[in-house]
Write a structure and sequence with these properties.
This protein has 399 residues and is an alpha/beta fold. Helix content is 37%, strand content 16%. The strands form 4 sheets. A 6-stranded parallel β-sheet has the order 5-6-4-1-7-8. The chain has a 6-stranded parallel β-sheet with strand order 11-10-9-15-16-17, with helices on both faces. Strands 13-12-14 form a 3-stranded antiparallel β-sheet. The longest helix is centred in the middle third of the chain and has 15 residues. Bound molecules: adenosine-5'-diphosphate and magnesium ion. Adenosine-5'-diphosphate binds next to α10, β14 and α14. The site of adenosine-5'-diphosphate has 21 residues, from α10, β14 and α14.
């Protein structure tokens, strides 16, 4: 499952020209970095390499450019990284070519250069052989710290790792051991809480978890499909009628494995999922949802039941909000689960949160530092949980 990969800590990097793939795909606002969490997540690896006197070039993508696109330059990232490091970080005008080679050759020990958005070249996502060679050319070593892109076989993730001696960065290493550890040898009872919008986008995650976790607790929009599949009226709730068979299959798999699958027993309903509907929100039994409302959150009895499972668990993995948490009146379930996980960490349980919106919810609640691990990779973390091989990880030699 999670095989240990050769670590940047073991690399002889002093004085070497090191290409480091990072995930600087940050949100921008008015030409500045709006949230620098992803930049900060790469700092331990950058700091280690600087300490060792490596000559560092960072490479990343930003957004989905079709060819060179001035609105997706990494210039704001170079500025922000320079502020954080306390010394300016130069940005090369491209990610390959003579100018990059000249700038890399001129780097002193511990100096950092940022290469321009690697996706300005379509060959990056094609994992094109000639482009991969051009990318690798000025360097002695390669370090991959871009966990968020590790599920993609691109030139700067999987490609270069086959051409240069490759090592796992500290962030990538931590992600793989934290998430992979859930699959390998979780302390039991192991509870998985899965919410979010749809069954269809999480079907493989649900299948993997129902077989591995002692208890699978379901919430969010996807719980509606499970409730419908078990004969409960769900009114105008978001649900995927064409996924009811998948929901049934998950329930059957849980039964076969002798694992518990928990569904909401009460829910918060409202005329719609927007803030204007919040004033008419109320709690009803999961079996008594009127035809003209939508389920927007789990109810207090459900929270209490999930709280008991969290209280008993030694390992908890959580992905996906339990309700429409973007609307304050529908955020109670998600918020409470985040708090309960933080408390569980405090009494020694291993708590891992992975996803897009679920991580956002934990951060907004100010609880990220109180989890054992909060993953930086949305899609990549789910693929790892599904038990899939991530090309960017597989390309790094085993330790
Ligand atoms: P994650 O990014 O954490 O994996 P998803 O992308 O699967 O989570 O789903 C997040 C979205 O699910 C949120 O935007 C939230 O509003 C939505 N959601 C949660 N519960 C419901 C619900 N009952 N009805 C509609 N949407 C919901
Ligand atoms: Mg999402």
């Amino acid at each position: 499952m999670s095989v240990k990969k050769r670590s940047v800590r073991e690399a002889q990097s002093s004085g070497k020209h090191v290409l480091v793939r990072v995930d600087f795909n940050v949100p921008l606002r008015e030409g500045a970095v709006a949230d620098d969490s992803r930049i900060r997540a790469a700092l331990p690896t950058i700091a280690l390499l600087r300490e060792r006197g490596a000559r560092i070039a960072l490479v990343s993508h930003l957004g989905r450019p079709k060819g060179a696109d001035a609105s997706l330059t990494l210039a704001p990232v170079a500025r922000r990284l320079g502020e954080i490091l306390g010394r300016p970080v130069a940005l090369a005008a491209d990610s390959v070519g003579d100018d990059v080679a000249t700038r890399v050759a001129a780097l002193g020990d511990g100096e950092v250069l940022l290469l321009e958005n690697v996706r300005f070249h379509a060959e990056e996502e094609e994992n094109d052989a000639a482009f991969t060679q051009a990318l690798a050319k000025p360097f002695d070593l390669y370090v991959n710290d871009a966990f968020g892109t590790a599920h993609r076989a691109h030139a700067s993730t999987a490609g270069v790792a086959r051409l240069l001696p490759a090592y796992a960065g500290l962030l990538l290493e931590r992600e793989v051991s934290s998430l992979g550890g859930l699959l390998d040898s979780p302390a039991r009872p192991f509870l998985a809480i899965v919410g979010g919008a749809k069954v269809s986008s999480k079907i493989d995650v649900l299948k993997a978890l129902v077989n591995r976790a002692d208890t699978l607790a379901i919430g969010g929009g996807m719980a509606n499909t499970f409730l419908a599949a078990t004969g409960h009226p769900i009114g105008r709730s978001l649900a995927e009628r064409d996924r009811m068979a998948d929901a049934e299959a998950i329930l059957a798999a849980g039964e076969k494995a002798g694992h518990t699958v928990l569904l909401p027993t009460d829910v918060v309903v409202a005329p719609g999922i927007d803030a204007s509907a919040a004033v008419r929100a109320k709690t009803v039994a999961a079996g008594g949802v009127p035809a003209d409302v939508a389920i927007v959150d789990i109810g207090p009895r459900t929270i209490a039941a999930y709280a008991r499972s969290i209280g008993a668990a030694k390992t908890v993995f959580w992905n996906g909000p339990l309700g429409v948490f973007e609307v304050a009146a529908f955020a109670a379930g998600t918020r409470r689960i985040a708090e309960l996980l933080a408390e569980a960490t405090g009494r020694g349980a291993t708590t891992v949160v992975g996803g897009g919106e679920s991580v956002q919810a934990v951060e907004e609640a100010g609880l990220a530092s109180r989890m054992t691990h909060v993953s930086t990779g949305g899609g990549a973390s789910l693929e790892l949980i599904e038990g899939r091989t991530l090309p960017g990880v597989a390309a790094i030699p085993d330790a």
